[in-house]
Amino acid sequence: MSSKPTAISQQPPAGSAPYTLRFAEESDLPAIETMINAAFEVERTFKLEPRLDPEHTRKYFRQGHFLLAEDEVGLAGCVFVELSGECAYLGLLSVDPSRQKTGLGRRLVTAAEEFAGQRDAFRMELTVLNLRTDLPPYYRKLGYIEVGEEPMPMEWARRINRPCHFIRMAKSLDRREP
């Protein structure tokens, strides 16, 4: 098992709140699970269960990296990044509901992209549930484009009360492209 990075260097944009960015340790997993479930509470109209449970949180932690944003109050947001050669996957972008619409989500995505690019990834991919009609426009503003659709895995389908699918989006991280 490869060791997990512990810190990330990123200067906050001028005028933004002072968040510290770091990579999660195993002891952070309960707080991460709570944060993600709170941020994904908007999905309760169609999801039959919380977004994550302890087993799935640990699974994500073993597969990739959680990047955390913290301030003087505590955990403010997080994002999951999985590296796979020249392609990386971004998921579970979550911001504490009281801190949403502050630019923190954008900052976490930027930090995740920089981390993946430093690890030689040329492309970042993500999936959004088609029922979350607010998400494709958000990610488009961050430079992502829709590249396809994927069926809902059976494990997920049993936890959702209406037909749905994933929308796959991607963005080039190759700094040589305009």
Layout of SSEs?
Blueprint: E1 20-23, H1 29-39, H2 54-63, E2 65-70, E3 75-84, E4 87-95, H3 104-118, E5 123-129, H4 135-141, E6 145-151, H5 154-157, E7 165-172
Parallel strand pairs: 4-5
Antiparallel strand pairs: 1-2, 2-3, 3-4, 5-7, 6-7
Helix pairs in contact: 1-2
- From N to C, what is the helix and strand string? EHHEEEHEHEHE
Largest sheet report = 7 strands, mixed
Low-pLDDT residue intervals, each spanning 5 or more residues:
none
| CATH architecture assignment name | 3-Layer(aba) Sandwich
Q: DSSP helix count?
A: 5
Structural class: alpha+beta
Largest beta sheet: strand ordering: 1-2-3-4-5-7-6
Descriptive notes:
The radius of gyration is 16 Å and the shape is globular. The protein has a seven-stranded mixed β-sheet. It is α+β, with helices and mostly antiparallel strands and 178 residues long. Strand 2 and strand 3 form a beta hairpin. Helices cover 26% and strands 29% of the residues. It has five helices and seven strands; from the N terminus they run E-H-H-E-E-E-H-E-H-E-H-E. Helix 1 (29-39) packs across helix 2 (54-63). The chain has a single domain (20-172), classed as Gcn5-related N-acetyltransferase (GNAT) (Aminopeptidase), CATH 3.40.630.30. The longest helix has 15 residues, at 104-118. The model has no long low-confidence stretch (mean pLDDT 90).
Summarize the structure.
With 178 residues, the protein is α+β, with helices and mostly antiparallel strands.
Give descriptors for this structure:
5 helices; alpha+beta; Aminopeptidase; 178 residues
